């Protein structure tokens, strides 16, 4: 299941975060980071997925 979350985090970062933690602070932060730059959104999403 982690492989699917990591792939989702690379393709669409907010989706990967949503699959891991649901709608919360990290989800909204990731949307903001993805809008500001795609790479920071990916880094944050992978960090959230691998953290747990």
Automatic annotation (TrEMBL):
The chain crosses the membrane at residues 7-25, 31-50. PROSITE patterns: UPF0057 (PS01309). Pfam families: Pmp3. Keywords: Membrane, Transmembrane, Transmembrane helix. It is found in: Membrane. Belongs to the UPF0057 (PMP3) family. PANTHER family: HYDROPHOBIC PROTEIN RCI2 LOW TEMPERATURE AND SALT RESPONSIVE PROTEIN LTI6 -RELATED, UPF0057 MEMBRANE PROTEIN ZK632.10-RELATED. This is YqaE/Pmp3 family membrane protein.
